[in-house]
Amino acid sequence: MPSLFVTTEELEKALGTPGLVVVDVRPKLEFIAGHVPGSIQTVWRDFSDPDSDIKGLLDPQTSRLEEKLSALGIGNENRVVVYTDPFDSWGSEGRIYWMLSYLGLQNVQVLDGGWVKWKREGRKTEMGLASPTAATFRASIRPELIVLKDELKTLVDSRAEGKCLESHAVIDARSPKEYNGAMGPGIPRGGHVPSAISIPWDQFFNEDASIKPKEELQRVFRENKLTEDQEIICYCTGGVRSAWLLTVLQFAGYSKVRNYTGSWWEWSNDASLPIET
Fold it and tell me: What's 24's domain CATH number?
């Protein structure tokens, strides 16, 4: 099993290796202005449900996801490394890492420090559009990596009755202001999912955008009373920051982590669902 994170040095040495696909998930104009040589480009919204106003929801038609990934040159046997600008992405590298893992890709990693560290170290870059070579991707869904609204509601109801308090944890990856009720566009109700713990997604970076040592991550999670045998559900506004938190939790040794893709966009728009402020 490869490490979840790959260093800039390791990736630069691996460029040009058969089977390697480097995925830049920054906006297209930023990609055109400069990117890791040989990268292809996409963004997480390319894989959202086109029939829903809740854009965090993943497209439920697996065949469409397979077609898009195949067109990008991602096949089942590829090694995929995802990167972005960690300081300006809201966790989008985590969202693509989570999605590919959920769809069954076995060898997917995140570039530690992303574009920030790569550029700072003066590593080689290129400009222009990508020219991917089509591949064949067939999904093998991993349902243990996702949670949907109805299942989360059942869990919240059970916790209100005093059940599942030790076996499960619900984590809010948004900012403390959002957790406490601040609202953005498309959010009709402020607050958080009842019993959710606030662990903001953006506290795990070093100044060069690389991830902090595993021991520091584990200390934060232990302070929030998370244990490695718990089932942990992460959410944010649209399942992006929460996917990054899932990535960090997995790196820290927590294997039972799921992403709620509908997140607060979906939860706050359903007036029948409980909230806390």
Answer: 3.40.250.10
